[in-house]
Amino acid sequence: MADPLIVMQGIQKAFPLGDQVYVALRGVDLVVEPGEYVAIMGPSGSGKSTLMSLIGCLDRPTAGTYQLAGTRVDALDDDQLAGVRNQTIGFVFQNFFLLPNVPAVENVELPLLYTGVPPAERRRRAREALEQMGLAHVMDHAPHQLSGGQQQRVAIARAIVNRPPLILADEPTGALDTKTSEEILRLFEQLNDAGHTIVMVTHEPDVAAHAKRLVRLRDGLVEADQAIAGRRVLGQEAVPDAVH
Ligand code: ADP
Ligand code: MG
Fold first, then answer.
1. How far is the CA of 208 from the centre of ligand 1 (A)?
2. What is the C-alpha separation between 177 and 207, in angstroms, rounded?
3. 60 phi and psi, to 5 degrees?
4. Which atom of ligand 1 is nearest to the CA of 52?
5. Which ligand sits nearest to residue 217's alpha carbon?
6. Is 174 within 8 Å of 140 (Cβ atoms)?
7. Of 190, 143, 142, whose CA–CA distance to 167 is shortest?
8. What local confidence, expressed as pLDDT, does residue 186 receive?
9. Cα distance between residue 143 and residue 131, in whole Å
10. How many Cβ atoms from other residues are within 10 Å of residue 66's Cβ?
11. Cα separation values, 153 from 100, 149, 197, Å
């Protein structure tokens, strides 16, 4: 079997708070295998975003070990972290985080800028990723000319353009209506079927129900971690018991 993509052991994250520290993660163990689709849920303040920023190599834990795609990343410096991040992870955020005055195709090219891929090849790959997202006709549009669902699809194209094994999504449907959310979830399903590992934070049970595994955080610890039996299929109303 392939090595796990994510191996976190005893992960802690403390933030300085005045002359004290606030401990947002208190010892998280998490192993994610290639090809998994994991939803992370938990009450506000339970540590979801903190955990995502650690998984995403945007920050370092204050204790514990983290191995990502075979590399120990918990003690890397900022430049090294940025390198691993660029190679390994595509990010999708609630509010898209597209550059406002830049055409879709150039937004999608951004992760390729520092990888040594020549400009013509960057453009070709960006176009291909946008086509995959059904956006061939709006490649030259700026984000403000696009609907919310289209903007999120541009962001997903940007997340996959470098072909990273891992996609991290923090509330990716939080700013979208139900129908558009389902379109986005269908794309995630396709990406997962194509081999991308997905870790997604959501507070909505019927969004989490699309994943294959549910991790619940509470007070900075993993409270529950289970497979989702009877994963939700689009068009089918029932939400599996695990996510209620
Ligand atoms: P969630 O995403 O589950 O709502 P967060 O991970 O954002 O939770 O936050 C967990 C806890 O850590 C919260 O109490 C929050 O106030 C605290 N926290 C998060 N980031 C910081 C920070 N940079 N400095 C101080 N406290 C923080
Ligand atoms: Mg959060």
1. 21
2. 12
3. -115, 145
4. 6
5. 1
6. no
7. 190
8. 96
9. 16
10. 23
11. 15, 6, 18
Which ranges constitute the DSSP H helices of 133-175? Answer: 148-160
Q: What pLDDT score does 2 carry?
A: 78
Residue nearest to atom 14 of ligand 1 (CA): 45
* Ligand sitting nearest the alpha carbon of 25: 1
Ligand 1, atom 13, residue with closest C-alpha: 45
Which residues, judged by CB distance below 6 Å to any ligand atom, belong to the binding site of ligand 1? Answer: 15, 17, 22, 24, 42, 44-50
List, run by run, the mean pLDDT of 10-residue segments along the chain (244 residues): 92 96 97 98 96 96 97 93 94 95 97 90 98 97 97 97 96 95 96 97 95 98 92 56 65
| CA nearest ligand 1 atom 24, residue | 15
DSSP 160-216: HTT--SEEEEESTTTTS-HHHHHHHHHHHHHHHHTT-EEEEE-S-HHHHTTSSEEEE
> Which ligand lies nearest the alpha carbon of 43?
1
Nearest CA to ligand 1 atom 5: 47
Q: What angle do CA 86, 28, 58 make, to 5 degrees?
A: 25
CA distances from 42 to 49, 83, 114, 163 (A): 10, 30, 35, 29
